[in-house]
Design goal:
This protein is an alpha/beta fold. It is built from five helices and eight strands, in the order H-E-H-E-H-E-H-E-E-E-H-E-E.
Length: about 200
């Protein structure tokens, strides 16, 4: 929480800092960390507002539960949500001189070498990624959400542990219990988190 506050306050104009929010469990943790940190901002900078952006790939078959959750949770907490109907790589170009708080973890594909603050680019367009939960484990994510009784997408209670699109995501077979599936937080073998994903 304080890391997010300090790094955004000292390096960036808060009006150009966005939470990249996709409704997944990791993103929800980043959402609440930034939401808490924003209260600290409001005592220092009058009128501080939390901003989120949802990059919605129009070609992807998204879960309706994810889309509904994104709108419900941002509305509940009064977050200014901007929906960009494009993939991240193209959509980010509409945010000049901006920085994005992400829910990336080092165990995620392509994230092993990420640093807490990363300069990124999309062609000639440059931006910053802020990664506050890089070193969190799957267990850490669920400990945080459950301890503070925070809402998350209901798909996780149906056995989904890593959510992509309808076409590449299934309940995790390691959570199968008879004819149903246990909730995602019941997974004890964290290395099987992505067994919810179907290889295309």
């Amino acid at each position: 929480m304080y890391y997010i506050k300090n790094i955004t306050q000292n390096k960036f104009d808060h009006s150009n800092v966005y939470l990249s929010f996709n409704g997944g469990k990791d993103s929800v943790v980043a959402f609440h960390l930034y939401r808490i940190a924003s209260h600290e901002f409001s005592t220092d900078k009058k009128g501080c507002e939390l901003q989120a952006v949802y990059f919605k790939d129009p070609s992807a078959n998204e879960f309706s539960e994810i889309t509904s959750f994104i709108h419900a949770i941002t509305s509940k907490y009064g977050v200014n949500l901007r929906v960009v109907e494009d993939k991240w790589e193209r959509g980010v170009k509409s945010f000049e001189n901006s920085s994005f708080i992400l829910g990336s973890r080092s165990m995620d594909e392509g994230c092993a070498d990420l640093k807490p603050l990363e300069a990124g680019n999309a062609g000639d367009f440059e931006f910053y990624r802020i990664n506050p939960i890089l070193n969190w484990t799957y267990g850490d994510i669920w400990d945080f959400l459950l301890y503070f009784q925070l809402e998350y997408c209901p798909l996780y209670d149906q056995g989904y542990t890593s959510i992509g699109t309808v076409d590449d995501t299934l309940p995790n077979p390691y959570l199968k219990s008879g004819d149903t599936y246990l909730p995602a937080y019941k997974l004890t073998q964290w290395e099987h988190e992505r067994c919810s994903r179907v290889k295309q």
